[in-house]
Amino acid sequence: MGSGHKFTESPEGGYGSASYFRGMKAVEKLGGNFTDVNDGMLTKFENRPICYTVGGQEFSKEWGYGIFVGGAGGLCGYSGL
């Protein structure tokens, strides 16, 4: 998952480079209602930061809550072939 470009805090590393998710919603349980995501619901987790980065969590009235995801993709760092 990603665009081939890591997310960075610089203007070049967000829109136009890294991929992003916007208008995020959460479901608390199977069959439950959708709820708008907020900062208290998310924990940043990057198990392969050499391969991809996550960041830029923000809220806008137009797009709702969103995050950026970027990385090289493919089998980055995988040596199990």
Report on this model:
It is a single chain. The protein is an all-beta fold and 81 residues long. It has no helices and five strands. The chain has strands at 19-21, 25-27, 34-36, 52-60, 64-71. Strands 1-5-4 form a three-stranded antiparallel sheet, with no helix packed on it. Strands 2-3 form a two-stranded antiparallel ribbon. A hairpin with a 6-residue loop joins strand 2 and strand 3 (34-36). The protein is globular, with a radius of gyration of 14 Å. The two termini are 20 Å apart. The mean pLDDT is 75. It holds the Pfam family Neprosin. InterPro entries: Neprosin. It comes from Vitis rotundifolia.
Give the gist of this structure.
The protein has 81 residues and is mainly beta. The chain contains no helices and five strands.
Please tag this protein with its features.
81 residues; 32% strand; 5 strands; three-stranded antiparallel β-sheet; Neprosin; Neprosin PEP catalytic domain-containing protein
Q: What is Rg?
A: 14 Å
Residues in β-strands, percent: 25-35%
The helix/strand series, from N terminus to C terminus, equals EEEEE
How would you write the strand order of the largest sheet?
A: 1-5-4
Largest pleated sheet: 3 strands, antiparallel
InterPro entries: Neprosin
Protein name: Neprosin PEP catalytic domain-containing protein
Domain Neprosin PEP catalytic: 1-77
Organism: Vitis rotundifolia (Muscadine grape)
